[in-house]
Input
Amino acid sequence: MIRLLFFAHLGEQVGERQVTWPHVPDTVGKLKEEVEARYGLPLDRVMTAVNEEYARDDAPLQPGDTVAFIPPVSGG
Amino acid sequence: MTESLFAITSEPISVEDVMKKVMRPEAGAVAVFAGTVREWTNGKRTLFLQYEAYVSMAEKMLAQIGAEIAEQWPGAKTAITHRIGRLEIGDIAVVIAVSSPHRAEAYEANRYAIERIKQIVPIWKKEQWEDGSAWIGDQLETKPYPSGKPEVSE
Output
Protein backbone atom coordinates (compact mmCIF):
# COMPACT_ATOMS: atom_id res chain seq x y z
CA MET A 1 0.00 0.00 0.00
CA ILE A 2 1.21 3.50 -0.81
CA ARG A 3 -0.25 6.94 -0.24
CA LEU A 4 -0.81 9.32 -3.15
CA LEU A 5 -1.06 13.10 -2.82
CA PHE A 6 -2.58 15.34 -5.50
CA PHE A 7 -2.02 19.10 -5.55
CA ALA A 8 -3.49 22.15 -7.30
CA HIS A 9 -5.59 21.26 -10.37
CA LEU A 10 -4.77 17.55 -9.95
CA GLY A 11 -6.54 17.49 -6.58
CA GLU A 12 -9.57 19.14 -8.13
CA GLN A 13 -9.65 16.68 -11.02
CA VAL A 14 -9.24 13.60 -8.85
CA GLY A 15 -11.70 14.97 -6.30
CA GLU A 16 -9.40 13.91 -3.45
CA ARG A 17 -6.17 15.38 -2.17
CA GLN A 18 -5.05 12.07 -0.67
CA VAL A 19 -5.68 8.54 -1.89
CA THR A 20 -4.66 5.12 -0.61
CA TRP A 21 -3.32 2.98 -3.46
CA PRO A 22 -3.37 -0.75 -2.60
CA HIS A 23 -1.04 -1.83 -5.41
CA VAL A 24 2.70 -1.05 -5.21
CA PRO A 25 4.17 -0.82 -8.72
CA ASP A 26 7.92 -1.37 -9.19
CA THR A 27 8.68 2.19 -10.26
CA VAL A 28 7.31 5.72 -10.24
CA GLY A 29 6.84 5.50 -14.00
CA LYS A 30 4.60 2.46 -13.72
CA LEU A 31 2.60 4.11 -10.96
CA LYS A 32 2.09 7.17 -13.16
CA GLU A 33 0.70 4.94 -15.92
CA GLU A 34 -1.74 3.33 -13.48
CA VAL A 35 -2.84 6.67 -12.07
CA GLU A 36 -3.23 8.18 -15.54
CA ALA A 37 -5.45 5.25 -16.52
CA ARG A 38 -7.51 5.35 -13.31
CA TYR A 39 -8.23 9.10 -13.29
CA GLY A 40 -7.71 10.14 -16.92
CA LEU A 41 -4.95 12.53 -15.87
CA PRO A 42 -2.05 13.39 -18.17
CA LEU A 43 1.02 13.30 -15.91
CA ASP A 44 3.75 13.87 -18.48
CA ARG A 45 4.46 17.43 -17.29
CA VAL A 46 3.92 16.61 -13.62
CA MET A 47 6.84 16.17 -11.25
CA THR A 48 6.81 13.35 -8.70
CA ALA A 49 8.11 13.26 -5.15
CA VAL A 50 8.63 10.08 -3.14
CA ASN A 51 8.70 10.74 0.60
CA GLU A 52 9.20 14.47 -0.05
CA GLU A 53 12.15 14.06 -2.44
CA TYR A 54 11.82 14.63 -6.19
CA ALA A 55 12.06 11.28 -7.96
CA ARG A 56 12.57 10.21 -11.56
CA ASP A 57 10.29 7.79 -13.36
CA ASP A 58 12.78 4.93 -12.85
CA ALA A 59 12.86 5.39 -9.05
CA PRO A 60 11.73 2.27 -7.15
CA LEU A 61 8.70 2.20 -4.84
CA GLN A 62 8.29 0.45 -1.49
CA PRO A 63 5.16 -0.29 0.54
CA GLY A 64 4.48 2.62 2.89
CA ASP A 65 5.89 5.27 0.53
CA THR A 66 4.11 8.58 0.04
CA VAL A 67 4.04 9.69 -3.58
CA ALA A 68 3.10 13.28 -4.42
CA PHE A 69 2.16 14.46 -7.91
CA ILE A 70 3.46 18.00 -8.32
CA PRO A 71 2.26 20.08 -11.26
CA PRO A 72 4.51 22.97 -12.38
CA VAL A 73 4.96 25.15 -9.32
CA SER A 74 4.06 28.84 -9.10
CA GLY A 75 5.09 30.19 -5.72
CA GLY A 76 6.58 33.60 -5.12
CA MET B 1 5.80 34.23 13.69
CA THR B 2 7.74 30.98 13.45
CA GLU B 3 11.32 30.78 14.68
CA SER B 4 12.39 28.55 11.80
CA LEU B 5 14.47 30.10 9.02
CA PHE B 6 12.31 28.43 6.37
CA ALA B 7 8.57 28.47 6.91
CA ILE B 8 5.18 28.18 5.27
CA THR B 9 2.48 30.10 7.13
CA SER B 10 -1.18 30.95 6.72
CA GLU B 11 -0.72 34.17 8.69
CA PRO B 12 0.35 37.61 7.40
CA ILE B 13 4.14 37.86 7.16
CA SER B 14 6.14 40.38 9.15
CA VAL B 15 9.03 41.60 6.99
CA GLU B 16 10.91 42.71 10.07
CA ASP B 17 10.60 39.32 11.76
CA VAL B 18 12.05 37.52 8.72
CA MET B 19 14.85 40.08 8.47
CA LYS B 20 15.77 39.73 12.13
CA LYS B 21 16.36 36.00 11.68
CA VAL B 22 19.44 36.65 9.54
CA MET B 23 20.88 39.77 11.17
CA ARG B 24 24.16 39.19 13.01
CA PRO B 25 27.39 41.03 13.79
CA GLU B 26 29.32 39.48 10.87
CA ALA B 27 26.84 40.84 8.35
CA GLY B 28 27.16 44.30 6.87
CA ALA B 29 24.21 43.88 4.52
CA VAL B 30 20.72 42.42 4.55
CA ALA B 31 18.82 42.23 1.27
CA VAL B 32 15.07 41.77 1.76
CA PHE B 33 12.68 40.87 -1.03
CA ALA B 34 8.90 40.88 -0.70
CA GLY B 35 6.68 39.30 -3.34
CA THR B 36 3.22 40.88 -3.34
CA VAL B 37 -0.15 40.15 -4.93
CA ARG B 38 -0.51 42.14 -8.17
CA GLU B 39 -3.89 43.42 -9.30
CA TRP B 40 -3.25 43.70 -13.05
CA THR B 41 -1.48 41.14 -15.26
CA ASN B 42 -1.47 41.80 -19.00
CA GLY B 43 -4.65 43.84 -18.74
CA LYS B 44 -6.49 41.22 -16.70
CA ARG B 45 -7.69 42.08 -13.24
CA THR B 46 -7.01 39.76 -10.33
CA LEU B 47 -9.52 39.86 -7.47
CA PHE B 48 -7.53 37.68 -5.08
CA LEU B 49 -5.18 34.69 -5.02
CA GLN B 50 -5.39 31.31 -3.37
CA TYR B 51 -2.05 29.71 -2.51
CA GLU B 52 -1.66 26.02 -1.75
CA ALA B 53 1.49 24.15 -0.68
CA TYR B 54 2.80 20.70 0.08
CA VAL B 55 3.83 22.24 3.36
CA SER B 56 6.30 19.70 4.76
CA MET B 57 8.13 19.30 1.45
CA ALA B 58 7.98 23.03 0.67
CA GLU B 59 9.76 23.85 3.93
CA LYS B 60 12.44 21.28 3.09
CA MET B 61 12.91 22.75 -0.38
CA LEU B 62 13.21 26.27 1.06
CA ALA B 63 15.89 24.96 3.42
CA GLN B 64 17.63 23.37 0.44
CA ILE B 65 17.71 26.77 -1.29
CA GLY B 66 19.27 28.22 1.86
CA ALA B 67 21.93 25.50 1.76
CA GLU B 68 22.61 26.15 -1.93
CA ILE B 69 23.09 29.84 -1.16
CA ALA B 70 25.46 29.13 1.75
CA GLU B 71 27.55 27.00 -0.58
CA GLN B 72 27.55 29.45 -3.49
CA TRP B 73 28.00 32.61 -1.40
CA PRO B 74 30.01 31.64 1.69
CA GLY B 75 29.01 33.74 4.67
CA ALA B 76 25.47 34.35 3.40
CA LYS B 77 22.56 33.45 5.68
CA THR B 78 19.03 33.07 4.36
CA ALA B 79 15.51 33.12 5.81
CA ILE B 80 12.36 32.62 3.74
CA THR B 81 8.71 32.69 4.75
CA HIS B 82 5.94 31.99 2.23
CA ARG B 83 2.27 32.55 2.96
CA ILE B 84 -0.56 30.27 1.78
CA GLY B 85 -4.35 30.52 1.79
CA ARG B 86 -6.36 33.46 0.47
CA LEU B 87 -4.33 36.60 -0.25
CA GLU B 88 -5.77 39.97 -1.23
CA ILE B 89 -4.28 42.54 -3.62
CA GLY B 90 -1.17 44.06 -2.05
CA ASP B 91 -0.69 41.29 0.50
CA ILE B 92 2.81 39.89 0.91
CA ALA B 93 3.09 36.33 -0.40
CA VAL B 94 6.77 35.73 0.25
CA VAL B 95 9.63 37.39 2.11
CA ILE B 96 13.26 36.47 1.48
CA ALA B 97 16.02 37.90 3.65
CA VAL B 98 19.69 37.26 2.95
CA SER B 99 22.47 38.68 5.09
CA SER B 100 26.15 38.66 4.17
CA PRO B 101 29.34 40.51 5.03
CA HIS B 102 29.01 42.71 1.90
CA ARG B 103 26.05 43.88 -0.17
CA ALA B 104 26.85 42.31 -3.55
CA GLU B 105 26.42 38.75 -2.30
CA ALA B 106 23.23 39.63 -0.44
CA TYR B 107 21.61 41.03 -3.59
CA GLU B 108 22.75 38.17 -5.82
CA ALA B 109 21.79 35.44 -3.41
CA ASN B 110 18.38 36.98 -2.78
CA ARG B 111 17.64 37.03 -6.52
CA TYR B 112 18.79 33.41 -6.76
CA ALA B 113 16.38 32.42 -3.98
CA ILE B 114 13.24 33.73 -5.68
CA GLU B 115 14.18 32.14 -9.00
CA ARG B 116 14.75 28.78 -7.27
CA ILE B 117 11.42 29.05 -5.44
CA LYS B 118 9.74 29.24 -8.83
CA GLN B 119 11.52 26.07 -9.93
CA ILE B 120 11.49 23.60 -7.06
CA VAL B 121 9.25 24.61 -4.15
CA PRO B 122 5.85 22.86 -4.20
CA ILE B 123 3.63 25.93 -3.89
CA TRP B 124 0.84 26.81 -6.32
CA LYS B 125 -1.31 29.84 -6.83
CA LYS B 126 -4.81 29.96 -8.19
CA GLU B 127 -5.84 33.23 -9.81
CA GLN B 128 -9.35 34.48 -9.16
CA TRP B 129 -10.31 36.88 -11.95
CA GLU B 130 -13.51 38.79 -12.53
CA ASP B 131 -14.55 36.20 -15.11
CA GLY B 132 -13.16 32.94 -13.77
CA SER B 133 -10.20 31.24 -12.18
CA ALA B 134 -7.19 29.15 -13.13
CA TRP B 135 -4.18 27.52 -11.57
CA ILE B 136 -1.03 29.28 -12.75
CA GLY B 137 1.28 26.55 -13.68
CA ASP B 138 4.59 27.24 -15.31
CA GLN B 139 7.84 28.36 -13.81
CA LEU B 140 7.55 31.84 -15.26
CA GLU B 141 4.08 32.11 -13.72
CA THR B 142 2.71 33.45 -16.97
CA LYS B 143 0.82 30.48 -18.35
CA PRO B 144 -2.60 29.66 -17.04
CA TYR B 145 -4.14 26.27 -17.71
CA PRO B 146 -7.80 27.14 -18.28
CA SER B 147 -8.66 23.51 -18.87
CA GLY B 148 -7.19 22.75 -15.46
CA LYS B 149 -4.32 20.83 -16.97
CA PRO B 150 -1.23 21.54 -19.06
CA GLU B 151 -1.91 21.83 -22.77
CA VAL B 152 -0.53 18.99 -24.86
CA SER B 153 0.69 21.29 -27.62
CA GLU B 154 3.51 22.77 -25.55
